[in-house]
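testing teh design pipeline on a random one, pls ignore if ur not involved
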C-alpha cells in the first residue's frame, strides 16, 4: 500500500480528527508508521488516549483498507493530499487544512480566484434571485463560484454559475458517493462536469450535522472572499463567515428586510464590519480583482495544460514550434494535440515557417 492509502485509513478511524492526525504524523513521520506502531509507542504521544489507541489497533485490517480504496475508485473519486498539484492552493494556508480531500471533477489554476456564496436553506424568492444573479455575474467574469450544494442559496449559486458558462465548486459534508440533498442529483453531475465536488469525508460517510461546521472552513478556505445572502442569527452561514475572518478572508453581506428573520444574520454581519454589497463589482473592488472581460478567453476556456501551452506561446511569440517543444519539455505529441485544440478554440494561429502566435 502507498502512504496515501494509509492516510485514508487513519482519517477513517473514530476519534482521529484533523488535529489528532496532524499530531500523529508529526510524531511518527508517516501514516504507515502509525499503522505499524505498537500500543505503547502510540500512548507516548501527548493527547492520544487509550480509546484512540484501541481504535487504531483494532482497525488494522489491510483487506478493509483495500476495500475502502476500491470503493473510492468504484465511484471515480480522486484522492488529493497536500502535496498533489490539484490540491487547492488557497486551502493549504489556512489554520486547519484537510490532510486528505476526496474529489470528483477537476481543480484548475484559475480556481484560486474563487468566491464563495452561502446563505439560508429556506431562502426567500429575493434571496434566491440575488444568489443566482451574483453567481451568474461572477461566472461571466471568469470567476469560480464556491458553495455547499445545500437547498436554497447554495443551489441557486451553483446554478447561476453553471447556466452562465462558469465554473463552480461544491464542498460536501458527506462522502462523495452520497448526493445530499438527493434532489440535487442532476446538479451534482453538472458541477462535476464544469468544476469540482470536494469533501474531506470518505466513501460511505453520511451527512451528519457534526460534519457541516468543519465543511464550512473549507468553503471559506478555498475562496478569496465569502458573500453571505440571507442567514438566520444562528445560521451555519455565519459559521462560514467566522471561519473566513479567522482565515484572513474578506466577508461580504447583502442587506435585507429588517422585518425578516432571514436578514438578521446578514444585517448583524454588516453591523460587525462586513462589507455591505449590492452587486459583484463591490466585491471585486474590495478584493482588488481586476477582470478584463475582453481578454478573458484563457481564463474561461482552458484546462491547466492548455493554459500552460497558451502562456508559453503568449510570452515568446512568435515562437517556432520546435522551440516550444524545448521550452515545455513535454511529450511532443501531447503538445501538438494541445496546439490543435488551441487553434480550434481560436486562441492560437500557426504562421508559415511553423511559427505560432497567440490571438
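output:
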Amino acid at each position: 500500500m502507498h502512504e496515501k492509502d494509509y492516510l485514508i485509513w487513519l482519517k477513517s478511524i473514530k476519534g482521529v480528527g484533523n488535529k489528532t492526525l496532524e499530531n500523529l504524523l508529526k510524531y511518527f513521520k508517516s501514516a504507515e508508521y502509525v499503522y505499524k506502531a505498537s500500543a505503547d509507542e502510540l500512548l507516548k504521544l501527548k493527547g492520544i488516549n487509550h480509546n484512540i489507541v484501541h481504535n487504531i489497533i483494532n482497525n488494522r485490517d489491510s483487506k478493509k483498507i483495500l476495500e475502502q480504496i476500491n470503493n473510492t475508485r468504484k465511484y471515480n473519486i480522486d484522492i488529493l493530499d497536500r502535496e498533489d498539484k490539484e490540491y487547492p492552493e488557497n486551502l493549504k494556508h489556512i489554520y486547519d487544512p484537510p490532510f486528505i480531500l476526496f474529489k470528483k471533477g477537476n481543480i484548475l489554476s484559475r480556481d484560486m480566484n474563487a468566491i464563495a456564496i452561502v446563505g439560508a436553506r429556506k431562502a426567500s424568492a429575493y434571496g434566491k434571485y440575488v444568489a443566482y444573479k451574483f453567481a451568474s455575474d461572477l461566472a461571466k467574469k471568469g470567476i469560480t463560484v464556491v458553495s455547499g450544494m445545500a437547498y436554497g442559496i447554495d443551489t441557486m449559486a451553483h446554478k447561476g454559475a453553471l447556466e452562465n458558462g462558469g465554473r463552480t465548486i461544491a464542498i460536501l459534508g458527506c462522502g462523495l458517493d452520497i448526493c445530499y440533498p438527493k434532489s440535487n442529483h442532476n446538479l451534482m453531475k453538472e458541477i462535476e462536469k464544469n468544476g469540482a465536488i470536494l469533501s474531506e469525508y470518505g466513501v460511505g460517510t453520511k451527512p451528519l450535522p457534526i460534519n457541516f461546521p468543519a465543511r464550512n472552513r473549507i468553503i471559506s478556505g478555498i475562496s478569496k472572499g465569502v458573500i453571505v445572502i440571507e442567514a438566520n442569527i444562528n445560521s451555519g452561514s455565519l459559521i462560514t463567515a467566522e471561519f473566513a475572518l479567522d482565515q484572513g478572508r474578506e466577508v461580504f453581506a447583502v442587506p435585507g428586510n429588517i422585518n425578516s428573520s432571514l436578514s438578521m444574520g446578514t444585517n448583524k454581519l454588516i453591523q460587525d464590519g462586513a462589507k455591505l454589497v449590492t452587486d459583484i463589482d463591490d466585491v471585486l473592488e474590495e478584493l482588488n480583482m481586476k477582470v478584463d472581460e475582453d481578454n478573458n478567453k484563457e481564463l474561461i476556456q482552458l484546462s491547466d495544460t492548455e493554459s500552460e501551452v497558451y502562456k508559453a506561446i503568449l510570452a515568446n511569440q512568435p515562437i517556432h514550434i520546435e522551440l516550444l517543444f524545448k521550452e515545455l519539455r513535454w511529450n511532443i505529441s501531447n503538445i501538438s494535440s494541445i496546439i490543435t485544440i488551441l487553434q480550434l478554440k481560436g486562441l492560437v494561429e500557426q504562421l508559415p515557417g511553423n511559427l505560432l502566435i497567440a490571438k
